[in-house]
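Chapter review: from sequence to fold.
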Amino acid sequence: MSDRKYKHNGYQDSGYKESGGNRPQGPRPDMRPERMEGAPRGRSAGGFGPEAFKCNQCGQLRHGLGELTHEEACAKCAADLHTCGNCRFFDTTTSWECRESENIPARVPAKHVRNDCAMFTPKIVRDLAADKGRQTQTPDHARKAFDALFKK
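The token string follows.
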């Protein structure tokens, strides 16, 4: 008698015969296909776009940041920039919401208010839209692109 609970095909079916067939030992073969030469590598694989600083409140990009002072504010929304939310070590899943929590003396309670943390390093992102031209997109642009797709 079989020790299987259900008799239908596919239940605990490993593709090998139940009697006498053992699963082959050793490393599992790589299931990923090889990348073709000259094929695209994805959006960020090549590090496209210049480096920029992005405001955590409004998303305004700022190129050529230089040294960020404690008093600086965003030009668009006037939010403080020297905050935990704009730091590269900010991580909500870690202790004190900082990846450098063992090096800071106390928890910073307000993460989006100006602070004097010595570990602050601006979070730098890649501006992927820099080479596409800065055209303002409206809902009409999306509708026209959709209509053009189906030739209305």
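Two observations follow directly from the output. The two ends are 65 Å apart (CA to CA). The chain is about 10% helix and 5% strand.
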